[in-house]
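I'm stuck. Protein, please.
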Amino acid sequence: MSQNLQTPAVSIAAITATEASATEASLQAALKQQRAAYFAAPVPTLAERRADLRTLQRFIRENKHDLCTAISADYGHRSVHETLLAEIFPAIDGIDQVIKHLKRWMKPQRRAVDLRNFFGARNRVIPQPLGVVGVIVPWNFPINLSLVPLTFIFAAGNRAMVKMSENSRHLARLLIERMPAYFPPEKLQFFDETGGVGVAFSKLPFDHLLFTGSGQTGRAVMAAAARNLCPVTLELGGKAPAILCEDFPLRLAAERILFVKCLNAGQICTTVDHLWMPESRIADFVQEARQIVSQRYPTLASPDYTCVIDERAFRRLLDAMEEARAGGAQLIPLIPGPPHDEATRKITPHIVLNLPADCALARREIFGPLLPIHGYHQLEQVVQTINAGPRPLAIYPFSNNAGTVQMLLDRVMSGGVSVNDALFHVGQHDLPFGGVGESGMGHYHGREGFDTFSKLRPVFYQARFASMKFMMPPYGKFADKMLAFLTR
């Protein structure tokens, strides 16, 4: 009996090892193909880069309805308006903005020649393609977080391999099937997560690797990339706070904060994780929140409200809610009816009051439609509490007092900031996007995106008649005089 049980186990292990080896070989072959194409034509022209960007834009336009349908299938249900607003539009519009600036970005930068005897010498910084860039994409905004980076990767003249999430199976299938009609494999390839792909992908010797996801996975990706000394850009998460000050209109703040918190059912790395506000205004805020959210989503079944991505995430949020409630927290639903729906994996937006400091909602990034509110009496308390933890991906101060806003900018470090709103700094095409500390490293979007995926190569052009003989041994009196002059 035991032998019969052991035989399949050995067989399965052998199959698994074989599949892993095949996956690694397939990825290495793709990288080899792209790198060979890069060496054959390492610096695409401005016209070629613009053509690549227009082709990427054409793919989005021609497939936008199917892209929305695929993402909704991956979620169980995802509001088509949210996909169009947060993914399709930024990708299309961002390409137009990059094309507008690309010629200027590609120009060599002039720099001053420092040594004074180099009359006629020139210094230039030339942005050149790195080669092949790897992109590891999360499930929450899989079009935005794959095609927007590709915009800057292609603008910088590179080739790309893109690994999709295991929670984006329908979308990954669509991209793998349709993208070859737009780009050859030596320019762009997409890969599905079928088990072990992500690990093998992060071990490849890319010229640059971009990862968007959790801090825990980001550490593993960075460790794998370090074996190849592959530079990485990490876009991670963090408990981004909104800070509502006494002078800001309560209703307006509630409308803006709750729009962002309910968008994609809170499954956004840059959403408002929790809210700090004056203790005396909390009850009024809760009343406004109930009215605002119930108007936007009359029932949990609203087609405008998105599902939690999968059963594991759904259970994690429900367990965290129950833990907080058991610890004395008050959970206030903002839509009439049941607090959640097992069949659709939808959770009613909730405000959470009196949150215990040691529970999961307080310690971990929430990534769901739950908004803890913390009261304060002095802003100094807020500053000290935020600074005692990891630096967040964003902060959201709400105040019409310029001095108060500047104080928070000076004293609370974060990846980005939206003042008197939340999230919108991410959608500004000319602003860099990136974290700091545990919320990430490096930037993309805007000019910084082009620079991230370029080698800013310093080049010194010697003047025809310049001489360094005085700097060559044997040193004499002339060298003494020149060095004395240069170091005076």
Notes: Residues 1-15 have pLDDT under 50 and may be disordered. The CA atoms of residues 324 and 359 lie 6 Å apart.
